[in-house]
Each structure stands twice: as structure tokens, then as C-alpha cells.
Amino acid sequence: MGFWGAGLLAAALALAAPARAQLSDNVVRIGVLNDQTGLFADLAGPGSVEAARMAVADFGGQVLGRPIEVVAGDHQNKADVGTALARRWYDQDRIDVIMDLPNSGIALAVQQVAREKQRLVIFSSAAVSDLTGKACSPYGIHWAFDSYALATSTGNAVLRQGGDSWFFLTVDYAVGHAFERDTGAVVRANGGRVLGNVRHPLNTADFSSFLLQAQASRAKVIAFANAGGDLSNSIKQAASFGLFRSMTPVGIMVFLTDIHAIGLQDAQGLMLTESFYWDMNEEARAWSRRFFETMKRMPTMPQAGIYTATLHYLRAIQAAGTDDAEKVAAQMRAMPINDFMTREGRIREDGRVLRDFTLFRVKSPAESRGPWDYYQTVATIPAEVAARPLAESECALVRR
């Protein structure tokens, strides 16, 4: 090797060394924290872990020349378990970012831990819009959806179809309250009425008394402000009671796995909003088929969100030349989001990802072409409509 060759090699090594040295411990660790076995396991759970691993593999398994690890944790739907695990991951296990976090109460608690530790947290399964509102953090990113987008999109559509009186069947914890609050506000703002509500405990088995109260209200719409197993059980029981003969069913937060569990016979006609559906475009279909090969089911919106969020995070590390949380967060906000879920999306200053949403109607058994063909597209909701206006934000990060 001549003088110039040796000089160029030395220069290249000198340039590469600082970039590699910027990784905190020569490994990028991604922690997927969710419910692995309970009522949210189907919509996130092991499928979210697989989605993160797919993203790491597609990225090449390394960033800045160093390995990427995916770690899974089960918060068991208990805030103390979730926050304790988040603290251990940040403090002892050197986790760089925590992702997923179904169960909004736990998500809000982990958001506070991440703020204290100055580490990143990305929410793909949590819904409560307070994560980018009064509880916002410079280290928190709300990726796939939030309660405001789902409530605004679905509520407006049903009102336009004549559903001007509502009754809410609400799960009694943070996300249920947010669903009822945000959707109720849309209903009232557009001339509708909320005739009543009832709140049920998490993981309820028998909804009969709650459904009888809904029926007695004589509302035109029954809105299911719950999720996971609670959503599936309540819709099945409502269908068996014959409620949908007189009331229009609306799901505020519904995932593909919920419809699969309920079945089209009971779920047909349900109105819902999502930011992802496996059959929405060719890229989505191709990735979803790969996911199906391992998981034997099509991916949900949160699981697709984990895949796309992981790729965006790794690209930000590559571009920033470091895994420093503040620098990576700034880079993630600076880079546009383009993937099978999103076209020209971006992360707003409050941590909210701006992307379009789609209003769907659940097909009847006769309309479906087979397993997992469950949704009929009704309308596209532009990002600027689906997101809470910054002028209404309670986030301290928003410039006034």
C-alpha cells in the first residue's frame, strides 16, 4: 500500500471511530414492553416483538457498525410492574428506547420514567392523547394512533350518517376515559347528544347489566370505548342480545385481531378508524405476508407501527451518528416518515406523528373473500384533521 493509500485508510478509520464511539455501550438495545399473555396480547404482544425483530433484520442487524438487540418484557397490565421494569431497563440493562406499551395508564407512567432518565419511549399501542398533551415529553413519541384521531374520525362519520344520540360503554381506566371524553366532545360539537354512559372494570366477563342500560337509553349509537378482550366480549354479547337491530355499533379503538376474534357475523357493520390495514397497498400486503409466515395471523396497526417506528429510529441513529436520546429524537423529528403506513409524515413538536387515517366498515360474511379480508374502506381522514390542533394543545413543548 502506497503513502496515499495508507493515508486514505487512516483518514477513513479516523472518521469512522468517532461515529462508533458515540454509541453508549457499543450496542443499540430496543425494549418492547407490552402485555405478552393477557387481553392485549393479540393486538401487540409477541407480534410486536416479531415486528421489531423484522425491522432490525431488514435494517441489516447493525447500526454504525455495532449490533442491535431486541428485548421483550411483559408489564402484565400492572402499572407497578411496568414502571419497575422500565426503570431496570434504563438503569441496569442499558435499554436505549422502550416501545409499544398497550395500556394507557402504564404508558403515562413509563413516559414519566423516560423523562426522568432522559431516554426515549415510542408508543405504538397506547391510545391516550394526553401523551402528547398535558403529559408530553421531549423524549416521548406517539407513533401509530391516539384517542383523539380515532374519536374525531369515527365520531364525525357516524354523525354524518344520522347517528346523533350516543351511549358509551367505557372501560374504567385512562384510555377508556379519553375515548369517551374525546368522542363525546365531537358528538356535542356537531349537534349530537350523549344520552348516557356506563363504566366497567378491566377484563370484564359479563356485560349483560351494562348492555341493558345502553338499550334502555334509547340512543341510536352504542360506542364501545374499550379494547382487547373487553371489546370482543362486549360486542359478542351485544350482538347476542340483539342490540344492533336498534343501535348502530361503533368501535372507538378496534384492531384486526378483535374482528377476527368476534367474527364477521357479529361484527359486520361496525365503524372504526385505523392508520394501517394489511390490504391497504402493495407494500403493506408484502410485509404483512412475511409477518404472517411467522405469526400465522395478519398484523395489527400497533404491530405495523412497531416495525415502521423501529426503522425510523435506527435510521435516525445512523444519520445522527449517535444513540444519544436528545440527538436521536431531534433527528427523528427532522426526517420525513415514508413507509407502507405513511406518506410524507412527520413528528410534531409535541411528539405526535402526523399521518392520514382511514375510516373502515366491517364487511359482512358475504362480502368477505376469506380469512382476514374484513375491512371496507369508507373514507380517508387527512393528517391535519386527525390530529388535535396545536392551538388546543396542553403540551408545554408547544411554541405559543
From TrEMBL:
In this protein, which residues make up the domain named Leucine-binding protein? 28-363
What is the protein named? ABC transporter substrate-binding protein
> What family does the entry list?
Belongs to the leucine-binding protein family.
PANTHER family, per the entry: LEUCINE-SPECIFIC-BINDING PROTEIN, PERIPLASMIC BINDING PROTEIN OF ABC TRANSPORTER FOR NATURAL AMINO ACIDS
Q: Give the matching CDD domains.
A: PBP1_SBP-like
Q: Domain of life, per the record?
A: Bacteria
Instruction: Write the record's keywords in alphabetical order, separated by commas.
Output: Amino-acid transport, Signal, Transport
Which InterPro entries does its entry note? BCAA_transport, Leu-bd, Peripla_BP_I
Would you indicate the residue range of the signal peptide?
Answer: 1-21
Q: Name one Pfam family in it.
A: Peripla_BP_6
**SUPFAM superfamilies listed in its UniProt record:** Periplasmic binding protein-like I
Tell me which species this is from. Belnapia mucosa
